[in-house]
Amino acid sequence: MASMVRALFPRPIMAYAVFKTGGKQYRVSVSDVIDVDKLDAEPGAVLTFSDVLLVGEGAGVKAGSAAQGTTVTAEVVEQRKGPKLVAYKYKRRKGYHRKVGFRSRLTRLAIKSINA
């Protein structure tokens, strides 16, 4: 029964890419919205990322030198702050405790295209 349902309603094959920015790697598809470390760009600006590590579409995957020349195009949606995180240091029996909170600066991107 399940194989008949899969034959009648196949899943769409989505292209995806893994690119690097800010020392981190992100797996994205077209129309994804992601948060990355703050980039110097105004909302509405279009950015192109050329540091693509892997490109996949269906069963075909290109990585390393085969993925060179691929770019990921994204539009800056907004500049924002992340959730508040608390770093708490404590040493028992010494009366020592420190509480520091911070919010990381983020850029929200909408992925527009993957040009392989």
Number of distinct beta strands:
10
Order of helices and strands: HEEEEEEEEEE
Helices, by number, come to: 1
Helical amount: under 10%
* Estimated share of beta-strand residues: over 45%
Low-confidence segments, given as residue ranges, are: none
User: What is the CA-based Rg, rounded?
Assistant: 20 Å
Give the neighbour order of strands across the main sheet.
2-1-5-6
Approximate shape: extended
Secondary-structure class: mainly beta
Main sheet, how many strands, which sense, barrel?
4 strands, antiparallel
**Mean pLDDT rating:** 91
Termini Cα gap: 37 Å
Q: Give the domain tally.
A: 1
Structure overview:
The chain has one domain. The radius of gyration is 20 Å and the shape is extended. The protein has 116 residues and is mainly beta. The protein is built from one helix and ten strands. It has one helix at residues 2-8, and strands at residues 15-21, 24-29, 33-37, 46-49, 52-57, 60-63, 71-81, 85-91, 96-102, 105-115. A hairpin with a 2-residue loop joins strand 1 (15-21) and strand 2 (24-29).
Write the layout of secondary structure elements.
Elements: H1 2-8, E1 15-21, E2 24-29, E3 33-37, E4 46-49, E5 52-57, E6 60-63, E7 71-81, E8 85-91, E9 96-102, E10 105-115
Antiparallel strand pairs: 1-2, 1-5, 3-10, 4-7, 5-6, 7-10, 8-9
